[in-house]
Design goal:
Layout: H1 3-19, H2 43-49, E1 60-61, E2 69-72, E3 77-84, E4 91-95, E5 100-104, E6 107-108, E7 115-120, E8 125-130, E9 139-145, E10 151-160, E11 163-166, E12 177-181, E13 186-193, E14 201-205, E15 208-209, E16 219-224, E17 229-235, E18 244-250, E19 256-263, H3 285-305
Parallel strand pairs: 2-10, 12-19
Antiparallel strand pairs: 1-3, 3-8, 4-5, 4-9, 5-6, 7-8, 9-10, 11-13, 13-17, 14-15, 14-18, 16-17, 18-19
Length: 306
């Protein structure tokens, strides 16, 4: 059998094993049963069925090794499974989205150059490497053993795009403006969402990193890490030298910029922020007088016409 025929046979085998999963194997499942949110992909069910005192004599997955993978757009994803007692069987990776066979062993079956198959004989790990992950790559991938019936191990890949936002600046704006009265407290709040892990955040003012123990005093920052990382920059008793560009710079997301203006006394006329917060303009007296005289002039013209 030549290489082309062997590849065709392998593709047919994997397709049949995906479309018509065996109901007799405790390790089989239906792709349609997978939770699209990734909260339950049947690994826990397989753990319960697995007898660790009497493991299978043939190849089997290490379900305690299970993990899903979350990466940011552009990063490299590593989808892994661990197979014991592989013997003369092979391990394949299949993408659920289009039932596309990606790898058999370390041989590539996809034309997408971003994928690579790796195997570590010491740890018995089989890794599907994906470079430059994109949002469209989000979904289930299956590590599959060519046993009879075939056994599958689903892994959910989540590709996220982090969003950095400074409150008061519209999300679509690259930058924005905030107006603060002199002597008030500057309170800039930066929020970072969609991160695979919490971010550390630092702030700059006009390109220089802000020092919280500078002689100016009254400058502090509070950062709360979690699924959403929030950083509060507080500057007491705003002064004219505090005017300028402030940038929130997360360690693993795009920065966000805001321009702060320190106002003296009344708001300048015709000033408007890019954040969509307009400062009310005073109506010029000349315009008001014109509006009052206009109906009188019209009335005079009517009378004279008679």
């Amino acid at each position: 059998m030549d290489e082309k025929m062997l590849k065709s046979a392998t593709v047919i085998f994997v397709f049949v094993s995906l479309v018509i999963p065996s109901s007799t194997s405790p390790f089989s499942y239906d792709w349609a049963e997978l939770d699209p949110e990734g909260e339950n992909n049947h690994i826990d069910i397989h753990r319960e069925k697995f007898d660790r005192d009497h493991p299978p004599t043939g190849p089997y997955f290490d379900y305690d090794y299970f993990r899903n993978e979350t990466v940011m757009v552009g990063d490299t994803a590593y989808l892994k499974c661990r197979v014991h007692n592989i013997g003369n069987k092979t391990v394949s990776w299949v993408r659920h989205l289009d039932i596309n066979l990606l790898t058999v062993g370390t041989t590539m079956y996809t034309s997408d150059p971003r994928f690579q198959s790796m195997h570590d004989a010491d740890t018995e790990e089989w890794t599907l490497k994906l470079k430059n992950a994109q949002l469209k790559d989000t979904g289930y991938f299956e590590c599959q053993i060519s046993s009879t019936p075939p056994r599958g191990y689903p892994v959910l890949l989540s590709v996220v795009e982090p969003i950095t936002q400074i409150l008061g600046v519209r999300e679509g704006d690259l930058t924005g403006e905030i107006f603060i009265n002199m002597g008030s407290t500057i309170n800039l709040t930066c929020i970072v969402r969609n991160l695979p892990e919490p971010s550390s955040i630092h702030w700059t003012h006009n390109g220089a990193e802000i020092s919280y123990d500078s002689p100016r005093g009254g400058v502090s920052v509070i950062t709360e890490k979690g699924d959403i990382t929030t950083s509060y920059l507080l500057i007491q008793r705003a002064r004219s030298t505090d005017t300028g560009e402030y940038k929130c710079i997360p360690s693993n997301a795009h920065p966000k910029t805001v321009h702060v203006h320190i106002l003296k006394g009344e708001h300048p006329e015709a000033m408007q922020s890019h954040a969509g917060l307009s400062i009310k303009q005073k109506q010029p007296k000349a315009t008001i007088h014109s509006l009052l005289l206009y109906p009188i002039l019209i009335l005079a013209q009517v009378i004279s016409g008679r």
